[in-house]
Amino acid sequence: MKLPIDFFLQHINSKKVYYFSSKKINTAIPHYFVCVLKNNDDTIILVCCTSDKEDKRKKRIELLGLHNTLVWISPDNENGLIKDTFVDCNSYFIYTKDEFKTMYENNLLDYKGEISENHYEQIINGLLNSPTIPNEFKELLREIKL
Predict the structure, then answer these.
(1) Across the chain, how many H-helices and E-strands are there?
(2) d(CA 38, CA 50)
(3) How confident is the model over 105-123, as pLDDT tens digits?
(4) What is the pLDDT of residue 66?
């Protein structure tokens, strides 16, 4: 059952899991994304998930020894994931509320569930530990942790 658009938009928040295809990751294959932060200016910041054990990002992270920037989440009834999933905390993606609205209205985006507080904290720590995340964004994340 599809939620009314106003209800959907009001409930975009941290820890929510969405499933959609993104031009920002150079593939038409849909991925799971976890909302890390929704700013007051209606900017939605997400991290991308992969379940592919052979994924290039996962291999790169392991090669560089950045294990603390890769978060493993197993599927459960709450998060809506269907298989073991890895979150790459070395990049993030910015969307606007309007972009989410358009994708949702065109059936290009699905809400799947919500990750646990523990996994959310691991993602925040992974982003903070990543050498590729800008300091300005890390400052926003530190405010979340307070």
Answers:
(1) 5, 7
(2) 22
(3) 999 999 999 999 999 999 9
(4) 66
Q: In this structure, are residues 85 and 49 in contact, taking their beta carbons and an 8 Å threshold?
A: yes
So what's the pLDDT on residue 144? 76
Spatial CA neighbour of 138 closest among 25, 37, 64: 37
Q: What is the DSSP letter of 51?
A: -
Residue 127 near residue 37, CB atoms below 8 Å:
no
Tell me the pLDDT tens digit for each residue of 68-77. Answer: 888 999 999 9
Q: Which residue has the tokens 């990751």?
A: 25
List, for the chain, all residue ranges whose pLDDT scores fall below the cut of 70.
1, 52-67, 145-146
Q: At what angle do helices 117-129 and 135-145 cross, to 10 degrees?
A: 150
Q: How far apart are the first and last CA of the chain?
A: 37
The token duo for 88 is: 């790459």
Phi–psi pair at 112, nearest 5 degrees: -110, -30
> How many angstroms from the chain centroid is the CA of residue 10?
18
CA atoms of 28 and 65, how far apart (whole Å): 29
**Contact assessment for residue 112 and residue 79, using Cβ atoms and an 8 Å cutoff:** yes
